Amino acid sequence: MFNEKIYNLNNLNKEKLLSLIKSISPTDKKKYYKIAESRLNRLIKPKESLGRLEKFVCDVVAITENKRPVVKNKYVCVFAGDHGVAFENVSAFKQEVTAQMVANFLSGGAAINTIANSVNAKVIVVDVGVNADFGDDFLNNENFINAKINKGTNNIYIEPAMSYDDALKSLYAGINIAEKLIKEGANICSTGDMGIANTTPSSAIISFYSGVEPKMICGYGTGVDRKTICKKVMIIEKAIKHNIIDEQDPISVLAGIGGFEIGAIAGFIIGCALKKTPVVVDGFISTAGAVIAAKLNNNCLDYMFLGHLSKEKGHKTAVALINKKPILNLDMHLGEGTGAVLAMKIIEASMDMYNNMLTFDEADVIASNKNK
């Protein structure tokens, strides 16, 4: 499945990438909402009685520019990467767990697998920066994409997370993976993540862009104690102060305080927008990626759904940055794409209603005055 050119910079530079991202236009809500609402209001139900489900329909019609879109081929892309800051003991788990969880994703035993199976979504696992060498069993797995940029980021407590070129690679990898999956038949995608300690760079990104102090962003994550949270806050404050070369450049922010999987998630969202395909953003880490995507081109927001509100402390602040209303609020904070996959099913159900429900004329039912 993987093409080595997926993040090859031989024919890519910042200007070309930014030109590609800049080409994303906003959806034509005025035109396509009118088309969707015309059918919705003729279905055998009181007008607007299905609430936000009808808004989801309007958004999908506008995103796809299709009067009757189908969203049956559901994919969740779980981006995995390690973080040098893990060696500061900011997580309850050791860094090796990232690679172990990648193995579990591919064997089908993780939470994302069970939930994805229940809603008939395909799980794709992408290694963009795991600190491990995966053997042929992984490389030959059709659900695994080897897009490794490096074996983990640098320790942001000491130095920038990655080089500028590596930040570009992470974005470009995500873009190309989205385009590849869509070419293979995906018509709705969602984001997921795996990376021990990745709440630290995610918190840094959210704190930087919101202006909210890190102590108001950092939560208990995987179950750390208060002392560890205080340490995370100190690390983030130092990283924001010293690691970002150009505060006006989102790629520089990603390079200074981000992560490979965060950059790839941002790129994946951009890739879906380029291909006019709806993308459902998962929780805290995925939202950090969504913020980077939106900072590169705010029009990306038109193509996103926010799957759920995470229980992670800083997620409300993150959500405010992208101004999206979560579909679900189930006190989840696992990541992996679990909340987004559940939300994808709700979007699919909305489209099934829109496409398959009878109109008043078809059902021989007299419409109310409000439906006319």
UniProtKB/TrEMBL annotation:
Belongs to the CobT family. The active site is at E336. NCBIfam families: cobT_DBIPRT (TIGR03160), PRK00105.1 (NF000996). Catalyzes the synthesis of alpha-ribazole-5'-phosphate from nicotinate mononucleotide (NAMN) and 5,6-dimethylbenzimidazole (DMB). The lineage of its organism: Bacteria, Deltaproteobacteria, Candidatus Acidulodesulfobacterales, Candidatus Acididesulfobacter. One of its GO terms (biological process) is cobalamin biosynthetic process. HAMAP family: CobT (MF_00230). It catalyses: 5,6-dimethylbenzimidazole + nicotinate beta-D-ribonucleotide = alpha-ribazole 5'-phosphate + nicotinate + H(+). GO terms for molecular function: nicotinate-nucleotide-dimethylbenzimidazole phosphoribosyltransferase activity. This is Nicotinate-nucleotide--dimethylbenzimidazole phosphoribosyltransferase. Coiled coil: none annotated. Keywords: Cobalamin biosynthesis, Glycosyltransferase, Transferase. It comes from Candidatus Acididesulfobacter diazotrophicus. Its EC number is 2.4.2.21. Pathway: Nucleoside biosynthesis; alpha-ribazole biosynthesis; alpha-ribazole from 5,6-dimethylbenzimidazole: step 1/2.
